[in-house]
Specification:
This protein is α/β, with parallel strands linked by helices. The protein has 7 helices and 13 strands. It starts with a helix and ends with a helix.
């Protein structure tokens, strides 16, 4: 029989919404905050299981953004975030604005979905202290959106979300092949959301660039976008990589290798 406890503890040795679990003395520990309206936590957990496979890292997955705190982070050496900055307290009728919503007979009785930000400033300060103290922060895909809620979070993460076009193929190029994360990594193509972000730090820290090879642009920002960076922050380290709306993109073999190297660099193993 599959018990609730076993279900919660499935995947990478830790559970979605599970409490921190014990790691072996040699293991590092990671907390992954995942899942939102547009990104199902199940595919993210399954995808990241492959990222952490063989890295000797104990991972705890959670969707509970409210629990993010200094005390929780104190149990870990790495924090991973793959979720946006929005919650929808009054609900919504679907994960996206499906066309059939316009044809509901009583559509006028449903309020328009209204998001609000979940991040509290003390949570942003907790992240800052966590990284400054010598730990790692891996910001993935749409988590750049969280930066819109806090200057503190943005300062740690390094930038903020602008927007993205629909799913379409684009090329991810390594623009700094000497960094430990990108050494040996080849350019790769994904069919994904090409996220456009503002980057606030030194340009020498940019590792990746995305380009739509068909010349398709987004909001006048051109066909190219910054797709990844890495830098030291206090005694800790920060990495951002933008692909990740689909499991197909997260599981691109070259991207998986890059994610693994990013985790190892954040944990100061390379």
């Amino acid at each position: 029989m599959l018990s609730r406890r076993n279900l919660l503890r499935s995947g990478a040795g830790a559970g979605l919404l599970g409490l921190p679990t014990q790691a072996r003395p040699s293991e590092k520990r990671a907390l992954a905050l995942i899942g939102d309206r547009y990104h199902n936590a199940d595919y993210i957990r399954v995808a990241l299981d492959r990222t952490f496979e063989g890295l000797d890292v104990k991972v705890d997955y959670t969707i509970n953004y409210e629990q993010l705190s200094r005390s929780l982070l104190s149990n870990y050496q790495l924090f991973v975030c793959l979720r946006d900055g929005m919650i929808w307290p009054d609900g919504y009728s679907g994960p996206d604005a499906y066309p059939y919503e316009q044809d509901l007979e009583n559509r006028g009785t449903f309020p328009e979905p209204q998001p609000r930000k979940w991040l509290r400033e003390e949570q942003a300060e907790a992240l800052k202290e966590f990284v400054e103290g010598g730990n790692g922060f891996y910001s993935m895909h749409n988590s750049s959106h969280v930066s819109l809620a806090s200057k503190t979070w943005r300062d740690v993460m390094g930038g903020a979300y602008i927007g993205h076009p629909p799913l379409r193929p684009f090329r991810v190029r390594v623009v700094n092949a000497t960094h430990p994360i990108t050494q040996g990594i080849q350019d790769f193509t994904v069919n994904d959301e090409q996220h456009y972000v503002e980057y606030d730090k030194d340009k020498k820290n940019i590792l990746l660039e995305a380009e739509n090879l068909d010349g398709l642009t987004f909001q006048g920002l051109g066909a190219k976008s910054i797709a990844g960076w890495a830098y030291d922050y206090g005694r800790g380290r920060v990495v951002f990589t933008s692909p990740g709306h689909t499991i197909h993109a997260l599981w691109n073999p070259e991207y998986v290798n890059l994610q693994k190297r990013a985790v190892r660099w954040l944990l100061k193993e390379i």
